[in-house]
Specification:
The protein has one domain (3-288). Helix content is 79%, strand content 0%. The protein is built from 14 helices and no strands. Helix 1 packs parallel to helix 13 (252-264), helix 2 packs antiparallel against helix 11 (212-239) and helix 5 packs antiparallel against helix 9 (155-175). The relative contact order is 0.22.
Length: 291
């Protein structure tokens, strides 16, 4: 099998798994509070990422990264997975899954805006058009097409969903300055987050109250939102002959996700969600075009 086919299979596998995550979040939140879910899923993901490096005899790279930059990785861990997923999952707890997951995709728009002050890039006319079109999509989704504030199901949830895009975009900009390989850097962050996650579970007494359904849901989130899927996606991009072709597969995830949300969660997909999504995706693609 040539590299292009390998990249396509790995990329599609990652997309299919990511498309299940919005549904998994909502199911998990039926059995766990946000902090317990983030903590358990973080520990699971830590084990997966460390196992991945150990299988390749690369644990020394991880140890070196933690030894040379412990405080930097601790600070990054506080952003991802801890802060980011607490904000994102609280938004999921307050909003319909279709709204939270579609709004979350606008982080790519925020990323290009933050790159102006952080990386010194220029803000081009196409960026402004993308922002206007993308966030028109957000308004349509949040108000279910009515453009009335009273139609927003949770203003707090909407605010948190938008803040999560800012946190995630800022995290990835900071991540570009790290010297280690992406899988090593991510593993280092999760290793640093695990003591905090375990401490919360012990101090809160939450471990004794976790049902098998909650534990299973947390393991699923840890595997397929934070751990395995990232590895599949990074391997797909590393094998891709044309990176853009593989990268654009990510836009299939919310489409598949909306189907699962309707079938599994029995949450009817509102027409406004589809209209908003149809605006957000072209806005992101416009920003990715070369000037």
């Amino acid at each position: 099998m040539n590299r292009s086919k390998q990249a396509l299979i790995l990329g599609l596998s990652a997309v299919l798994l990511w498309s299940t995550v919005a549904t998994a979040f909502k199911i998990a939140l039926r059995y766990l509070d946000v902090l317990s879910l983030v903590s358990l899923a973080s520990v699971v993901s830590t084990l997966i990422l460390v196992f991945w490096l150990a299988a390749q005899s690369r644990v020394k790279e991880l140890a070196a990264a933690l030894r040379e930059r412990p405080f930097k990785y601790l600070a990054m861990a506080c952003i991802n997975p801890l802060l980011y997923y607490v904000i994102l999952l609280t938004a999921y707890d307050l909003l319909p899954a279709q709204q939270a997951q579609t709004i979350n995709y606008t982080w790519a728009i925020i990323l290009s805006l933050l790159a102006v002050p952080v990386l010194g890039q220029r803000l081009l006319p196409k960026d402004l058009v993308a922002v206007a079109v993308g966030y028109l999509g957000v308004v349509i989704i949040a108000t279910e097409g009515s453009f009335k504030l009273g139609a927003i199901q949770s203003t707090v949830g909407l605010g948190l969903a938008l803040i999560s895009t800012l946190v995630w975009a800022g995290f990835w900009l900071a991540n570009t300055r790290l010297q280690e390989a992406k899988d090593v850097a991510l593993a280092a962050m999760f290793v640093m987050s695990s003591p905090l996650a375990i401490a919360y579970l012990v101090v809160s007494g939450g471990l004794s109250e976790i049902s098998w359904q909650g534990l299973g849901a947390a393991v699923y989130v840890g595997l397929f939102e934070m751990g395995v899927t990232f590895l599949l996606w990074s391997q797909a991009l590393s094998r891709a002959v044309h990176v853009a072709r593989v990268a654009n597969l990510i836009f299939l995830a919310p489409v598949f996700s909306l189907v699962l949300i309707q079938v599994v969660l029995d949450e009817p997909v509102h027409p406004a969600t589809l209209v908003g999504f149809a605006l957000i995706v072209p806005a992101i693609l416009l920003q990715q075009r070369e000037p």
